[in-house]
Amino acid sequence: MATGEMGSVAATGRGCAVCQEGAYTGGQPRFVVSTSPVDLLYRCDLCRTWWLDNGRALRPMTDDEARDRFPAQVSAD
């Protein structure tokens, strides 16, 4: 992973240090569901940030983005 990729994730202000690093090295965030081969939902158990893997990039999402994209899996918590 290039340094710029991690910098862009950190710049969003979403996610904790554990899931920001783990998104590229393993561990956190944990896999939740796949609704298609290119729509993978993850969530950090520590900070509760939702993550989307679309086959090209793994990025943090807001609760509203996650709810819009994965309504059956994301409750209004």
Main features:
77 residues; alpha+beta; globular; disordered N terminus; four-stranded antiparallel beta sheet
Account of the protein in words:
- The model is unreliable at 1-8 (pLDDT under 50).
- This protein has a 4-stranded antiparallel beta sheet with strand order 1-2-3-4.
- It is globular and about 25 Å long.
- It has helices at residues 3-11, 17-25, 63-69; strands at residues 30-36, 39-43, 50-53, 58-61.
- The longest helix has 9 residues, at 3-11.
- It has one domain (3-69).
- It has 77 residues and is an alpha+beta fold.
**Span of the ends, CA to CA:** 32 Å
The largest pleated sheet is described as: 4 strands, antiparallel
User: Structural class given helices, strands, pairing?
Assistant: alpha+beta
Shape: globular
Helix content class: 25-40%
The total beta strand count reads 4
**Overall residue-averaged pLDDT value:** 83
In spatial order, strands of the major sheet run 1-2-3-4
Write down the oligomeric state: single chain
Radius of gyration over C-alpha positions, nearest whole angstrom: 12 Å
Uncertain stretches of 5 or more adjacent residues: 1-8
- Please trace the helix and strand order, writing H or E for each element: HHEEEEH
Q: Could you tell me the strand content as a percent range? A: 25-35%
Number of domains: 1
- Tally of contiguous helical segments: 3
